[in-house]
């Protein structure tokens, strides 16, 4: 009754970069699936999702359960097509057993993520179920106990920002649609339902696209004739890094591909990856050329064939920083937003041609949301928003075209009046009858000068004491890779709130003797919740593949990741700062 995917994706997804997905596929292998999923199409859907992932270091694990965990495969890093085949073979080898307890699968999925996933990625869960449990009467387990455990797990997922998508499978007419929809609603996700398990590949494609802020582009539905039939696949611009063409059919199909220049492209080849299964064929075009591609498909006569396209883009949407976060009713806020690629403003204006953008404004006091259309200026989106009330607001720009959309990070502003300062009492005026005495100018000057000297000295003393006792925020995640065996340790999370003034990396590494040289890597507090790393070692510290000079101090902000090679012991330390 249940198939569950749990995977982590980068926040504000940057497609085509290092894949950055940690996936756990959690499968209900109870006997009740024999009626909910007679032909094990759920397994086909899982395999299709694995095939849609890049071969760039994504990690995928699998958990099979009934009312307990039956089989489990640890997170496997995908480096080759063979790694994907290992996962798919594991799925095909799963057997079914009695009883079902949804809480067991959800709880285990969250546990796997907490113990092994990269905290810099965005989590996501997909549940496929009929929404019903089936307990072993001899176990004493009750629905109330299961619900309590499931609710606790859902709350844990909600607090961690993990959306739970649900797919209701209704092959036997016993779907508990309301229960599954509630599961999604609590975590701000979407719920799907189907009467046919054969719809699963399509639904999973939609979830994949939805979570990654993409859109499925329907290409064409056709009925096989036994001959090649041609369809056009348009790649809209040069920022497409991957084009996933899914061909759903109940019988095998043959494919041919022609690039925009009219040249035939071999399938498979260095630029095209192909995977086949019982219900689908998936073509992955790597960095495809812009223009119209011709896809030729030969299917079995009278076989229904559905073709869809999902693009992966290396694009994000940024909003120009506002000059202020405080306004008053009637003020007009100027909005400017633009696309970025790899952190830089997009140089190619061609991408903007078919795009539209709106400013989404949420009144945080009333909860109401409105959208204001922004003007497309050819290389950016512009508009204004007039503040209506003395409320707080959240601003997000959304830009989209037919194959994808992006949202800018939210920005909060306020129009609430600041606390009024206490009135300054008026200066007293001497009465007309009093004798005016000469002002003692010289003693006052000397007194002020002495006070300034004491004040400056006190300031530097106070600053030194404060610096030596200044605390830290956030935590550091550490991983160590042995360069001889290429084995990597599990992530270690080190909270920094216990430190004052400064600490060295060796302390975080629990003073391991072999890592003694890390004593010369020192961290001190910075401003705005940042930390300063200062290195006295000969090793080269790298950030995003580039060497940085930390000899005089280098500032790290939340989310920054660096690597530090230790030549004396052939190990590399991976460091991530989280706020």
Please describe what this structure looks like.
- The protein has 579 residues and is an alpha+beta fold.
- It has nine helices and 35 strands.
- The strands form seven sheets. Strands 17, 18, 19, 20, 21, 22, 23, 24 and 25 form a nine-stranded antiparallel β-sheet that branches.
- A hairpin with a 2-residue loop joins strand 31 (541-543) and strand 32.
- Helix 2 packs antiparallel against helix 3 (81-92).
- The radius of gyration is 30 Å and the shape is globular.
**Amino- and carboxy-terminal Cα gap:** 39 Å
Largest sheet: 9 strands, antiparallel
In percent, how helical is the residue content? 10-25%
Beta content comes to 35-45%
Low-confidence stretches: 7-19, 420-435
Average pLDDT level: 81
Tally the beta strands: 35
Structural class category: alpha+beta
Output the number of helix runs.
Answer: 9
Q: What's the overall geometry?
A: globular
Roughly how many Å is the radius of gyration?
30 Å
Short description:
Helices cover 20% and strands 37% of the residues. It has 579 residues and is of the alpha+beta class.
Notable traits:
nine-stranded antiparallel sheet, alpha+beta, seven-stranded mixed sheet, 579 residues, 35 strands, 9 helices, globular, 37% strand
């Amino acid at each position: 009754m249940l198939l569950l995917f749990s995977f982590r994706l980068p926040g504000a997804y940057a497609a085509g970069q290092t894949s950055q997905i940690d996936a756990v596929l959690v499968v209900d292998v109870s006997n009740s699936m024999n009626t909910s999923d007679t032909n094990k199409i759920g397994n086909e859907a899982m395999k299709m999702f694995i095939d849609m992932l890049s071969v760039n270091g994504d990690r995928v694990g699998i958990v099979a359960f009934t009312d307990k965990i039956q089989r489990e495969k640890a997170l496997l890093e995908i480096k080759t097509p063979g790694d994907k085949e290992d996962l798919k073979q594991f799925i095909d080898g799963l057997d079914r057993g009695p009883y079902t307890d949804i809480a067991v699968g959800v709880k285990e999925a969250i546990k796997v993520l907490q113990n092994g996933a990269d905290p810099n990625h965005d989590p996501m869960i997909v549940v496929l179920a009929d929404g019903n449990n089936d307990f072993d009467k001899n176990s004493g387990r009750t629905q109330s106990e299961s619900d309590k455990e499931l609710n606790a797990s859902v709350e844990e997922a909600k607090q961690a920002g993990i959306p739970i998508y649900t797919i209701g499978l209704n092959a036997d007419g016993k779907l508990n649609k309301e229960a599954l929809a509630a599961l999604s609603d609590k975590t701000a996700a979407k719920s799907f339902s189907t009467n046919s398990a054969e719809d699963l590949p399509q639904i999973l494609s939609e979830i994949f696209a939805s979570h990654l802020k993409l859109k499925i582009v329907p290409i064409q539905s056709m009925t096989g004739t036994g001959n090649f039939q041609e369809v056009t696949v348009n790649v809209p611009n040069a920022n497409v890094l991957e084009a996933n063409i899914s061909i759903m059919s109940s019988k095998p199909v043959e494919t041919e591909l022609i690039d925009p220049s009219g040249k035939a492209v071999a399938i498979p080849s260095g630029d095209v990856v192909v995977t086949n299964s019982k219900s689908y064929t998936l073509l992955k075009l790597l960095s495809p050329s812009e223009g119209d591609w011709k896809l030729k498909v030969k299917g079995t006569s009278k076989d229904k064939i559905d073709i869809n396209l999902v693009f992966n883009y290396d694009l994000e949407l940024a909003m120009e920083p506002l000059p202020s976060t405080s306004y008053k009713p009637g003020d007009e806020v100027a909005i400017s937003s633009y696309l970025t690629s790899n952190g830089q403003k997009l140089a190619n204006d061609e991408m903007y041609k078919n795009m539209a953008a709106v400013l989404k404004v949420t009144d945080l006091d009333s909860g109401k949301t409105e959208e204001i259309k922004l003007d497309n200026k050819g290389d950016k989106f512009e508009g204004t928003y007039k503040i209506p009330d003395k409320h707080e607001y959240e601003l997000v720009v959304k830009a989209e075209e037919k194959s994808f959309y992006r949202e800018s990070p939210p920005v909060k502003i306020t129009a609430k009046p600041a606390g009024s300062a206490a009135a300054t009492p008026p200066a007293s005026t001497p009465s007309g009858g009093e004798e005016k005495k000469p002002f003692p100018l010289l003693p006052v000057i000397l007194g002020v000068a002495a006070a300034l000297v004491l004040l400056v000295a006190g300031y530097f003393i106070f600053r030194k004491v404060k610096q030596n006792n200044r605390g830290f925020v956030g935590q550091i995640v550490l991983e160590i890779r042995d360069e001889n065996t290429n084995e990597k340790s599990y992530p270690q999370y080190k909270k920094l709130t216990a430190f004052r003034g400064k600490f060295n990396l060796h302390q975080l590494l629990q003073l391991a003797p072999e890592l003694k040289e890390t004593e010369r890597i020192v961290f001190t507090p910075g401003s705005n919740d940042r930390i300063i790393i200062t290195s006295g070692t000969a090793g080269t510290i790298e950030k995003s593949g580039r060497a940085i000079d930390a000899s005089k101090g280098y500032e790290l902000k939340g989310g920054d990741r660096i690597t530090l090679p230790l030549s004396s012991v052939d190990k590399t330390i991976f460091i991530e700062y989280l706020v």
